[in-house]
Amino acid sequence: MPNRIDGARLRGELVEPVGPYAQVDVVATTGSTNADLRQAVVDGAPDRTALVAAEQTAGLGRRGRTWASPGSGVYISVLLRPSGVPVAGVGSLSIIAGLAVLDVGDALGANVALKWPNDVLAADASGKCAGILSEAASSDELAVVLGIGLNVTRVREDVTVPAGALPPVSLAELGAATSDRTDVAMMVLAALHERETVWREAAGDLADAGMLDEYRQRCLTLGQEVKILTGGGSVIGDAVDVEPTGALVVEIPGGTRRSVFAGDVVHLRPTGG
User: Fold this and answer.
1) What confidence score (pLDDT) does residue 233 get?
2) Is Mitochondrion set as a keyword in this record (predicted)?
3) What is the CB neighbour count within 10 angstroms for residue 164?
4) What is residue 155's predicted lDDT score, i.e. its pLDDT?
5) Are both 203 and 253 inside the same structural domain?
6) Is there a single domain that holds both residue 226 and residue 210?
7) Which CATH number characterizes residue 246's domain?
8) Residue 270: per-residue pLDDT
């Protein structure tokens, strides 16, 4: 397979005792890496178990939507058991993952930015480069499956883009210094470990982890007029802040501020407008 992902190399550099992960498996294709690791939770897989796929056939995004995974990216899920983090702190984990992907983009020279809560975009908001999905898993102890889908090379033109969604864009198209998928997977897992370790030590508090101001600076959503689709309807207003829990603060007409913990955001005016 062209530009295949080298599992032996990832394990050699990332798995204990050399690296921080308990296990790193690589598959050519699977339905969903998150679904696979949700089953691994049931089977008792340890903290920091990772699965990397070169292709997904049934990848999922937020609210059950499909995530196109046509073999032009890396699709990574990590099982985390952050015993010292309260359930209320787990909501900020997707923000930590977004910062980790941003670290990789910055290191490779790709011009990327963040959209609350879980997307990595081209810095001009012209396309989506990565999606993140954090899911609590059924377990006797707190367990979270964190999935990252990252476009490394140009996505095929025949891939369907959902109505209203940004078109896909890849690290290569944004100027990344490499499109080697093993290198990119290695960098993502290393960056995620660095970010997640600090986050875990701070019990899930972004401010205590020293990452809240950084996120605010790189988040294109702040300062925007937004529409947020939630399970209970929608919220329209100005995105004015992000809380230490990861919640987005929206000022609605009349000046009332509301904290939104989850939802799909639509920017209602162009970035910088």
Assistant:
1) 85
2) no
3) 7
4) 85
5) no
6) no
7) 2.30.30.100
8) 57
CA distance 178 to 30: 25
From 215, 232, 249, give the residue that closes a domain: 215
Residue 172 gets which letter from DSSP? Answer: T
The answer on 231 and 208 residing in a single domain is no
Q: Which of 59, 219, 215 is nearest to 151 (CA)?
A: 59
Rg (C-alpha) for the chain, rounded Å, is: 18
Tell me the pTM.
Answer: 0.91
The tokens for 229 are: 């689709």
Contacts of residue 64, Cβ cutoff 8 Å, sequence gap at least 6:
none
Chain centroid to Cα 13, Å, comes to 22
Q: Which residue's entry shows tokens 């896909």?
A: 168
What are the distances in angstroms from CA 161 to CA 73, 75, 176, 259?
A: 16, 18, 23, 30
- 145 and 259 in a single domain? The answer is no
Range of the domain at 225: 221-267
**Taking a C-beta distance cutoff of 8 angstroms, is the pair 216, 225 a contact?**
no
Candidates 225, 237, 238; CA nearest to 269 is 225
CA distances from 155 to 60, 241, 262 (A): 17, 33, 28
Residue 63, C-beta contacts closer than 8 angstroms, at least 6 positions apart: 264
Burial-class residue 176 by CB neighbours within 10 Å (0-12, 13-18, 19+): buried
Q: Are residues 132 and 240 part of one domain?
A: no
Q: How many domains does one find in the chain?
A: 2
Classified as helix, coil or strand, 174 is coil
Tokens of 43: 């089977």
Q: Is the pLDDT of residue 1 over 50?
A: no
Q: Within this chain, do residues 227 and 211 fall inside the same structural domain, yes or no? A: no
Q: How would you class 163 by CB atoms within 10 Å of its CB: exposed for 0-12, middle for 13-18, buried for 19 or more?
A: exposed
